[in-house]
Amino acid sequence: MARLLAAVSGRAAPAQTGTMSLERCQSEWTEIEQEYQQLQETHKVYRQKLEELTNLQAICSSAITKQRKALKDLKHGLHKCTKTRSDKETEVINDLQVQIKERQNVFFDMEAYLPKKNGLYLNLVLGNVNVTLLSNQAKFAYKDEYEKFKLYMTIILMFGAVTCLFLFNYRVIDEIFNFLLVWYYCTLTIRESILMSNGSRIKGWWVSHHYVSTFLSGVMLTWPEGPMYQMFRSQFLAFSIYQSCVQFLQYYYQRGCLYRLRALGERNQLDLTVEGFQSWMWRGLTFLLPFLFFGHFWQLYNAVCLFKLSARDDCKEWQVKRAAEVVRHHYYCSKPQVFMLALTFLVLFLGNFLTTLKVVHQKLQKNKEKVKNN
Ligand code: COA
């Protein structure tokens, strides 16, 4: 009776739909199974290729090491030959030496695509993890992100410095600002080490510059509150604002270089010639350089002011006998901080100024060579 009622009232229909959907499920499962089999095949091929890739990487790395050693021995041999050489031989030796130097540059480019052991710093910070990015696209994206990170942090730090200088003169806000600086420079040193592992030609000083800046911000962070601190505070904050402005200009220059160089490498994004890039770079550099040099001399000025501060009488009293006086003097006598800061600013000035001069000189030399060759 129940069955009859169900048949009349159409309850059989859902049972029929259920059967149909089960069929559909089964056919879907078969389809998924087929795709899964294909995925398994593809993954197997991928694993094989990965193994091949790892083997090729090992072969290339050991071949480069072998070639380097052979070239080093050859260089030694050539050096010995130079003692007893004729004019014709000199020419051959010079030619070989140039070729050896070029070969070393080629090895540097090759190694940018091979996994390698991290240096001491990256090993300490990240552990022994491979940081080599294997494709040009990934390398470009990482560098682009590094430049963007610098830009965003520059904006934040500029707001921080403006707030401290014009809005709030509270020690705690200064400390937050200085802590942010320490963190920012630490992060830059890590990112730059990764960039260098990926074939970036950042000069050693620019990386060291960020270690020195981390130290400087750390000393600023621990400088005790007092008249000495207040005397230098405004000058330091104004310098920070100026440095952020220069960093803006630097960002547009460096990002412009990055995009144009990439276009030169790929040739399909922008129709850009090497000469076009050179003229753009020189225009950017001549605009940027006066601002950079002004910043360097501001660093020197900071160093001089701080040396003067550290030589003041109220910064000299260190032989304090009573505990209460020790506490009081801890606030007012900050000679080590002031002296260390002065020294650090001097190191920054020398490093930045001399390296910038060297970079410009090298670029001019390269330009001259190119003009000669054309
Ligand atoms: N910080 C980080 N990376 C830098 C750098 C810096 N200050 N200067 C150059 N580089 C990088 C470049 O991006 C490039 O990287 P890539 O190989 O991954 O493409 C590489 O180093 C080689 O650059 P190079 O051709 O030598 O110089 P450039 O034309 O890019 O820049 C300067 C030249 C002078 C504009 C630049 O070095 C600079 O701005 N220096 C001044 C920094 C300074 O003094 N700051 C304090 C201001 S108060």
* Chemical compounds bound to the protein: coenzyme A
> What count of helical segments does DSSP give?
11
Mean pLDDT: 84
Tell me the radius of gyration. 32 Å
Q: Helix proportion of residues, in percent?
A: over 70%
Coiled coil: 22-56
Family: Belongs to the TMEM120 family.
Membrane topology: Multi-pass membrane protein
Transmembrane segments: 149-170, 280-301, 338-360
Report on this model:
Necessary for efficient adipogenesis. Does not show ion channel activity. It is a multi-pass membrane protein. With 374 residues, the protein is mainly α. The chain folds into two domains: 97 residues; 254 residues, no CATH class. The protein contains eleven helices and no strands. The structure holds coenzyme A. Coenzyme A binds next to α8, α9 and α11.
